[in-house]
Amino acid sequence: MRKYFKPLLAVCIGILPVNLIMIWYRLTYAESFTITDMLLYPLIIGGGNILLILALNRYLLKEKLGEFNPGKGSWYLDFTAAFVLTAVYFLLMFIERSLLSGILPQGKPQSQEVIELMTGLAQNPVLLAIWLGPVAWIGVALFEEISRVFFMNCLWKLGNHLVWSVVVIIIVAVFAGIVHFYQGPIGIISVGIQGLVAGLFYFKFRRIWPLIISHALFDSIQILMFVFMTT
């Protein structure tokens, strides 16, 4: 039992609180986030939680920083894998929207606040630069992928069977989808499937940088596509 306690405690401290608070906030408050909120909160909350996860990994689990990226590789291979993952994410997104838009409600925009964010970024080059820089890379991609890998690594410590490893990937992917419930049914499914792909990639190669790079590229390209279409 003792070997299970620390990984579960790490999840309870580093993963559950920030996500459950965000779910609670979105369920209990009708107001949408403003553009300023959506620029500041990822940096403040995401950046703070990254530091918390790294501290838990080092001092509670007694793991080195390399635990997040133990697989063999190089920057060249990481970027190549990131570009492939990005292409896969977009292909899956187009397939999902084509198949589900006629079945599930609200199959077009993910949420009104996302549209307002994109519109605001398209009208303000400074805000667009902030989003494409620190927000997309640190507040979103780095935060979500470190959280994903930390979550999986903690749960993988509870068992070493292949079946359990796959179950963990599914659990973490479903959790990620639920956290993005504000994006609507298609958003939940899309994020969940993307989480499955990311989880399987990490399980196979144990490289976190391709996940971070592809996540940032995927979000940034969508923003830029919207900006180009509206200008």
What share of residues is helical?
over 70%
Envelope shape: globular
The share of residues in extended strands comes to under 5%
Largest sheet: none
The oligomeric status of these chains comes to single chain
H/E topology pattern? HHHHHHHHH
Classify the secondary structure makeup into a structural class.
mainly alpha
Cα end-to-end separation = 59 Å
Averaged pLDDT: 91
**Weakly predicted, low-confidence segments:** none
Radius of gyration: 18 Å
Number of strands: 0
What is the tally of helical segments? 9
Number of domains: 1
Explain this structure:
This protein has 231 residues and is mainly alpha-helical. The protein has one domain. 80% of the residues lie in helices and 0% in strands. It is built from nine helices and no strands. The longest helix is centred in the middle third of the chain and has 32 residues, at 125-156. It is globular. The chain starts with a helix and ends with a helix.
Secondary structure elements and pairings:
Layout: H1 2-14, H2 16-28, H3 35-60, H4 75-100, H5 112-123, H6 125-156, H7 162-179, H8 184-205, H9 209-230
Helix pairs in contact: 1-3, 1-6, 3-6, 4-8, 4-9, 5-6, 5-9, 6-7, 6-9, 7-8
